[in-house]
Design a protein that fits this description.
Number of domains: 1
Strand content: 25-35%
CATH superfamily: GSPII I/J protein-like
CATH class: Alpha Beta
Number of strands: 5
CATH topology: Pantoate--beta-alanine Ligase, Chain: A,domain 2
Largest sheet: 5 strands, antiparallel
Mean pLDDT: 86
Distance between the termini: 101 Å
Helix content: 55-70%
Number of helices: 1
Radius of gyration: 37 Å
Shape: rod-shaped
CATH architecture: 2-Layer Sandwich
């Protein structure tokens, strides 16, 4: 009977050994599955971060182009106060340029096209001259 008990113990330990090896393979497959899911989530997050970074950079360039155009209008106002016959120019502002054109007699219309990189923004202002002062009747982005 003792011998029979030993054989059963051997069978149980052999069975346990087989299950142990099957579980190790299952653990590897489970590990690979979770690694794949983690890589997918991480890749998605990286793509979103890069897209947001590019978008923020473009927003900054567009905003810079707008402020360059506004600087052109303000420059035109100063020039018109000094020289009523001022007709415009190309002005460098930081990394951008503003192309300024002045038309009309009274009111004068100032159009400034600000460019920074691939972005262009246009600002238009109308000014009336009276008693040595210019007053704006309209200032808008086109």
């Amino acid at each position: 009977m003792k011998n029979n008990f030993k054989n059963k113990l051997l069978d149980i330990s052999h069975f346990s050994f087989l299950i142990s090896h099957l579980q190790k393979g299952q653990a590897l497959i489970t590990l690979l599955f979770f690694v794949l899911i983690s890589l997918t989530i991480t890749s998605g997050a990286i793509i979103i971060i890069i897209a947001n970074s590019i978008s923020a950079s473009k927003l900054q360039e567009g905003t810079s182009a707008y402020y360059t155009a506004e600087s052109g209008v303000e420059n035109a106002l100063l020039r018109l106060l000094r020289d009523p016959n001022y007709a415009g120019e190309t002005l460098t502002v930081g990394t951008g340029t503003a192309v300024i054109t002045v038309t009309g007699a009274n009111p004068k219309t100032v159009v400034s096209v600000g460019q920074n990189g691939n972005f262009k923004r246009t600002v238009q202002a109308q000014m009336n001259y009276s008693n040595g002062y210019y007053t704006f009747s309209n200032w808008k982005e086109l």
